[in-house]
Amino acid sequence: MEPAQTGVKTWQWVVTAIVIIVLIIIGIMVFGNKKGETPIGGDNMSTSTDNGTVSQEVNRVVMTDQYPGNVVYLGSVQLAKGGWVVIHKDNNGTPGAVIGTQWLDAGLSAGTKITLTQSTTEGGLYYVMLHSDDGDKVFNETKDLPLKDSRDSVIMKPFRAYASVGAGIKG
Question: What is the three-class DSSP state of 6?
Answer without folding.
Answer: helix
